[in-house]
Amino acid sequence: MTSPVHPIDPTSPSAGKERISDYLEGQRALLELKCCAPRALSVLIHDLSQPMSRSLEQALARSLAAGEIPGFRPTDTLMPPMMERFGLPPAALAKDPAIHALRTTCNTCARVGTCWLAMRHRASREECLGFCPNAEAFERRMPPAASDESG
Q1: Taking a C-beta distance cutoff of 8 angstroms, is the pair 23, 55 a contact?
Q2: What is the top-level taxon of the source organism (predicted)?
Q3: Is 123 exposed, middle or buried (0-12, 13-18, 19+ CB in 10 A)?
């Protein structure tokens, strides 16, 4: 499995490749946060608009992808903004009989690092269709106006 890449310029020749110094910087910062500032780490992970260095962002995405962040639940942080990409307010599926299956799929998804980066960088609905296992289900539940606007 490859590491999540920074979605800003995936066509760049160095996309997905980090210099070793950047990699180590991110890993060091992540280790310090895990050991010394777990609350700050939680804020960085759960607040998708929180500014951070690219090296730390990549380290967090790798750590999320590897399941190394105890207690992280993608349904709490990633599913609401993913649903918004499809024009669905988070409460829209509260009474949907499929919500349990959708949440289970989200919480066990192997692409959590990719998703976290995508939600941080406000990926489009089309981009999300390329990696999210719930995307088609969300698309089927889109309100007619939202599906017309998103093209």
Answers
A1: yes
A2: Bacteria
A3: buried
